[in-house]
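WARN no homologs supplied; continuing
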Amino acid sequence: MSMTVAGRIIDFLGSLQGMGRLQPPADGARRAVIDLSNGAIIEAHPDYPQGERLLYERSGSAKESVSTTKLVKLRLTRHAFERSVIAGGSVKDNYQHAADDFHRKTGFGE
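OK structure emitted
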């Protein structure tokens, strides 16, 4: 079974600095990731299989529908800053590398 664009986005987010993957339950529930800086859980929105929107749940809050583009830009920026500290290089170069990777691996925005 092939993964939706939204599923590939969630999978990619789990590979970024400061993010972690949550193990899906055995019953086949959707994949999710956790933002390790604030505990927010991010998962694919069932109404948007092409990934235009994601579900974002902060601790103690209801799930909110958020723009994938805005959320990904924010997470890529944080990733680029952290990579520049850890591995060197400019934030701009690290951001561009991560953004290129994102588009190639998810197919989102093409």
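The chain has one domain: 5-104.
OK
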